Amino acid sequence: MRRIGRSPLVWGLIGLLGVSVVSALTSSGPVPAVVGAVAAVAVYWAVMRLVAGRATPEIAWRGARREALHGAGIGLGFVLASVLLITVAGGYSFSWSSESFLPVVFTVAATTAGAAVTEELMFRGLALQGLEQLYGSRAALVVTGLLFGAIHLFNPGATLWSSLAIALEAGVLLGAAYLWRRSIWFVVGLHFAWNVAEGLLGIPVSGHASPGLLVVEVTGPMALTGGGFGLEASIVPVLVSVLLAVPMLVLARRSGHLVRRRRGRR
């Protein structure tokens, strides 16, 4: 049983099921989302230590704040650069909303924290690490990127293009970020800042619109603005994400963080 449990297919599926259940049970509001994030980390740790039989340096508390802040800085810069380019091109214009500051910030931040933690544990913590043990880092990056885009196909207003765009700008970028730093907290920080920045700017996050501190007015072609789906369906962040992901992958390779595909026995 111990040998079976240490197969990436087994611990990966058990972990994905456990974190998915936690996410589903705690998606009813901001406070449950934060509780769910904590519970998801506990489930991940338990599966990795008790089923997979491996250490979990990727969720170590030591250095977690530094990694999260580092990732958040990149995520914030990514969104602001993309939004600025679209605004300069005439696609976005902003005005202040009538929403109260603290309630909006708390709701957006708490809800996003829950989603960022659970999604990163599932896709970068479990799926990517499991697949790279079997097929290597490059194949794992491609597969998890496509899967990440595919699950967003069910979001409001989603299209094949928006899912492909998310696969490239989020699936590949977040995967490359993890391979570079080998820290869940780094990618959680990047993911968190990305979605919070969009939410506070009043831009729909992958089709999900919610009140922000600003109200965005969208004009121009969907290829530029992303339309009602939001920033993720714009070509601009796709291009910006490539500029970020490529050097991350280069640094990951230089650091020896890429896993080669296993060779079958003859």
Would you kindly provide a written description of the structure presented here, covering whatever features stand out?
The protein is mainly alpha-helical and about 270 residues long. The protein has one domain (about 60-255). The chain contains ten helices and two strands. It has helices at about 1-5, 10-25, 30-50, 65-90, 100-135, 135-150, 160-180, 185-200, 220-225, 235-255; strands at about 90-95, 215-220. Strands 1-2 form a two-stranded antiparallel sheet. Helix 2 (about 10-25) packs antiparallel against helix 5. The longest helix has about 35 residues, at about 100-135. The two termini are about 25 Å apart.
In the sheet with the most strands, the strands line up as 1-2
Alpha carbon gyration radius: 18 Å
**What count of domains describes the coordinates?**
1
As a percent range, the share of helical residues equals: 55-70%
Instruction: Identify the overall geometry.
Output: globular
Query: SS-based structural class?
Result: mainly alpha
Mean pLDDT reading: 94
Count of β-strands: 2
Task: Report strand %.
Answer: under 5%
* Main pleated-sheet profile: 2 strands, antiparallel
Termini gap: 26 Å
Low-pLDDT parts are none
List the defining traits of the structure above.
266 residues, mainly alpha, two-stranded antiparallel sheet, 2 strands, 69% helix
